[in-house]
Amino acid sequence: MEKGKTYPLVLFLHGSGERGTDNQKQLTHGAKLFLDQTNRKEYPAIVVFPQCPPDIKWTHRLKEKSAEGDWIFKFPTESGSTKPAYMADQLVNKIVEEENIDPKRIYIMGLSMGGIGTLEFLYRWPDKYTAATVICGGHNPKLVTKYSHVPIWFFHGGKDDVVPGKYSKLVYDEQKKYNAESKYTLYPEANHNSWDQAFAEPDLLKWLFSKSK
């Protein structure tokens, strides 16, 4: 870090498979993107990968199977944030307070459980984040007005059998009514691991870091 220079901050929320206490698994997906030497040179930033414990999630998301065998997701928000979400938010606050962070360029990204978490973080702390990337996530589209000012790039696989694509598309369709900068990319043949293609998008970081309040 250069003295006197401010940096963007990126909060990255991992998926359920990377939960744990080893402070390593959360780097499985996404870390290589930010460790790439070209990206580090072109987009210098402080990137934070908190790890969610194994017995809890970033949100209170519930799911059950319909009679037809389809996943039905519910996104209750009435009981406040989960403890990992609260702690991640407090971590962001602490870093902003203690490091040379540009407050106009604080971003959030997430995949799967973390994609759902990203949308919930925007709902709970709508004035904190400048832009977001949501990969194979989703949430309640009725809550979009709370964070409609935040540009979001959504990614989803057309054959996702873990988080049905409709849950991100419904949020995008609603959010697009308020924010022309938001985008939706569908990979028709991809299953749940659409993050592989999302991270390979040449304009992903360019788009994210171009956003400023």
Automatic annotation (TrEMBL):
Top-rank taxon, per record: Bacteria
Coiled-coil portions: none
Limits of the Phospholipase/carboxylesterase/thioesterase domain: 4-199
Keyword annotations from UniProtKB, A to Z: Signal
A Pfam family that the UniProt record links to this protein: Abhydrolase_2
Keyword presence, Signal: yes
Gene Ontology molecular function, alphabetical: hydrolase activity
Family annotation (InterPro entries): AB_hydrolase_fold, Plant_Biomass_Hydrol_Est, PLipase/COase/thioEstase
PANTHER family: BLL1128 PROTEIN, UNNAMED PRODUCT-RELATED
Protein name: Phospholipase
Native source species: Labilibaculum euxinus
Classification lineage: Bacteria, Pseudomonadati, Bacteroidota, Bacteroidia, Marinilabiliales
